[in-house]
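User: Run a structure prediction on this.
Assistant: Running it now.
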Amino acid sequence: MSNSIALVTGGLGGIGTEISKKLATNGFTVIATTFNKEIENADQWVAEQKAAGFDFIVEEADVTDFAACASMVKRVEETHGPINVLVNCAGITRDGFLKNMDESSWDAVLSTNLDGVYNMTKNVLDYMLSREFGRIINISSVNGQRGQFGQTNYSAAKAGMHGFTMALAQEVARKGITVNSVSPGYIATSMVMAIDESIRNNLISQIPMQRLGEPVEIANTVGFLASSEANYITGANIPVNGGLFTSF
């Protein structure tokens, strides 16, 4: 796998960074994508990761823009090598009660969290099909399984990712491509840790393990699904939520 590429959208985020590290440790050349290098301080992120021993490449592309995704994927394939792993990790929130939610808040979340999965996957898929190999891993959410008060847009998008995963897995299974999703629960990212402590503690009290998950625990699951050890797993959703929501 040393010559193959793992492309991680939203790779500069808290979970995305750990996923990038895990895949690099597993021998992939990792390319992290960002919607805007300047806003996300990409150069600083690359320097910090390099100091920690990780040599990442950052590519810019707005996942809501199909043409931008197509251009970026083509550039990566031609410049860096075959994209054998795609991790769709880019995501945003625009929370609010539906009765107060304006159209822009709905559109922004669906465009990034769901349309973005189509835009990236569609453009990577032709290359994977030609090689008859690939790993597509979609980072969903526990709230796509159970719904969440104040998150109709986010829950709808993340649930849609599950349907996309199950359908595409059936389409490409004979071509050596697996498609799976991972559904994190509440994870100790900077966004979650910025929540008021009393609210955060209330969230933790609802989790049977009585703690937040760590970004590396999501990354470990992604690393497994990207490996040859998961060759016979496709169309699956792997929950990583400390028991917050269970189903079969």
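The mean pLDDT is 94.
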